[in-house]
Amino acid sequence: MTPAPVTQVDWRGAVRIIRSAFPPIDLFEDIADPADWPLLIAAEQKTNPRVLEAIGRLDLVPARRRVSGPGASYRMAPFTHASPDRPSRFSDGSFGVLYAGNSTEVALFETIHHHQLFMVRTMEKPGWTSQFREIMLDVHGRLHDLRSRAEPAVLDPGDYAAGQRLGAALRAAGSDGVVYPSVRRAGGACVGLFYPDLAVNAVQGRHLDYHWNGARVDYVRDAGSRQVFAIAASSTSRSDGIGTRALCL
């Protein structure tokens, strides 16, 4: 593959959307020095054997790149809970990647796509489904830039094999991550960060509900204000057979 240039990326207010089912992890939110975490975990396990299930695998994050303090859960969890059962565009699941969009719309369309695939596979009944959290954060880092020069296979809408090979190769060579055009939202951009210290100031925003009509997500509801936004169906088919085009905000 043609080497991608490295670009300084400084995004304020990048957006990541995650399932609300995952609460903040106390250890990461604590102000304790990450260097002390192994000892704290060992002590906590004596009274709470489920602590490792909540924390995940710390060994997947180099000690010098771990983060702590308010909002650290949202930055650490994608890495400590990486699994081959949950591969992504730039990882086969053997290492974690923190994905975020440069706007709420980009993050919504990225998550709606994957939620729709899950709902189709499990043949879920129509209705308001899982609740999601909107996470705002700032991104600062030198990332490999795929926006102007990327092999088409790396950005394939449905086949992640080429992207996973590229992600593994870049990370092994010392890359901090990638910035790339959103595949789900035309004109948008996303980052895939290989380490949690590249994201800062992570704070929770809105809770969002997705409505499943049996074929696609057709509405998004702000759980706080109860406002409902329509997701317009695309007139063009896509590789996933579903397709969405515009969030009516």
Describe this protein's structure.
The protein is an alpha+beta fold and 249 residues long. The protein has one domain (6-247). It contains 6 helices and 9 strands; from the N terminus they run βααααβαβαββββββ. Strands 1, 2, 3, 4, 5, 6, 7, 8 and 9 form a 9-stranded mixed sheet that branches. It is globular and about 45 Å long.
Morphology: globular
Helical percent range? Answer: 10-25%
Radius of gyration: 18 Å
The assigned structural class equals alpha+beta
Quote the distance from N terminus to C terminus.
39 Å
Query: Please, how many helices?
Result: 6
Poorly predicted sequence stretches spanning 5 or more consecutive residues: 235-249
Largest sheet: 9 strands, mixed
Domain count: 1
Indicate the proportion of strand residues. 25-35%
The succession of helices and strands, N to C, reads EHHHHEHEHEEEEEE
Overall pLDDT: 85
Number of strands: 9
Structure described in brief:
With 249 residues, the protein is of the alpha+beta class. It has 6 helices and 9 strands. The chain has helices at residues 26-29, 37-45, 51-55, 72-80, 104-122, 161-172, and strands at residues 6-19, 98-101, 127-145, 177-181, 189-193, 199-212, 217-222, 228-233, 244-247.
